[in-house]
Amino acid sequence: MSSAEPTADRVARADRLAPVEVAEVLALARIAGDADGADPLDEHVLLRLRDPQAPAVHLTARSADNTLTGYAHLDTTTPWPASGWSWPCIRRTGDAGRVGR
């Protein structure tokens, strides 16, 4: 990752994530959890994230250098479908909000 703070400039939607993308999401979740003092992944999202057959929509935000800067999990089987987080350093800049649009 570059020394500059990452900023999201593109958001992608996927029904499935590749194993390397899952690893990136889990690493970002650890960073966010360490910064916040709470794990952003509940058990349901963690299980869905790791199961390539689970019905879900994954939204990933990436900076210009392809660094994962945000993630949102949309479960297509529940009435409360969304869970997401971003790099702590880009919060309140408006970039993380792009994932939800």
Explained architecture:
Helices cover 26% and strands 25% of the residues. The chain has 101 residues and is α+β, with helices and mostly antiparallel strands. The protein has one domain (10-100): 3-Layer(aba) Sandwich (Aminopeptidase). The chain has a 4-stranded antiparallel β-sheet with strand order 1-2-3-4, with helices on one face. A hairpin with a 6-residue loop joins strand 3 and strand 4 (82-86).
Strand arrangement, largest sheet? 1-2-3-4
CATH topology: Aminopeptidase
CA distance, first residue to last residue: 25 Å
Taken together, the total number of domains comes to 1
Query: Please, how many helices?
Result: 2
- CATH architecture label name: 3-Layer(aba) Sandwich
Report the portion of residues in β strands. Answer: 15-25%
Helix/strand/pairing class, anyone? alpha+beta
Rg from alpha-carbon coordinates: 13 Å
CATH superfamily: Gcn5-related N-acetyltransferase (GNAT)
Q: Which ranges are low-confidence, i.e. pLDDT below 50, for 5 or more consecutive residues?
A: none
**Judging from the principal axes of the Cα atoms, what is the shape?**
globular
How much helix is in the residues? 25-40%
- Name the helix and strand elements from N-terminus to C-terminus, one letter apiece: EHHEEE
Largest sheet: 4 strands, antiparallel
Please give the number of β-strands: 4
Mean pLDDT: 78
- Report the top-level CATH class: Alpha Beta
Give a concise summary.
With 101 residues, the protein is an alpha+beta fold.
